[in-house]
Amino acid sequence: MEQIKVETVKKGDVLFQLDRKIELLNEFIADDERSEVEWANRGSETLKEWFNGRLSARLFELEGLESLRSIINNL
């Protein structure tokens, strides 16, 4: 049977890393929003829909990360 190593981490360190991921995800979301508008203006419905789908997935991920941050912050 494998041994599991448990380490203690500081809550602030976890929140810092989580905040960096949230910031990066927000940058990706803004870029996807610009790309969606750009392709809509060019008349490419397929690429517009593709960016819209990617945007929806990232917004869902952002919601999950923000919820996780709230839970950790309340610990």
Q: Which secondary structure elements does this structure contain, and how are they paired or packed?
A:
Blueprint: H1 11-42, H2 45-73
Low-pLDDT residue spans:
none
Largest sheet: none
Number of helices: 2
Beta-strand content estimate:
under 5%
Helix content: over 70%
Structural category? mainly alpha
Query: H/E order of the elements?
Result: HH
Quick one: overall form? elongated
Number of strands: 0
Overall radius of gyration = 18 Å
Mean pLDDT: 93
Cα(first) to Cα(last) distance is 32 Å
How would you describe what is shown here?
There is one protein chain. By secondary structure, this protein is mainly α. The protein has two helices and no strands. It has helices at residues 11-42, 45-73. The longest helix is centred in the middle third of the chain and has 32 residues, at 11-42. The model has no long low-confidence stretch (mean pLDDT 93).
Question: TL;DR of this structure?
Answer:
The chain is mainly α and 75 residues long. The chain is built from two helices and no strands. The radius of gyration is 18 Å and the shape is elongated.
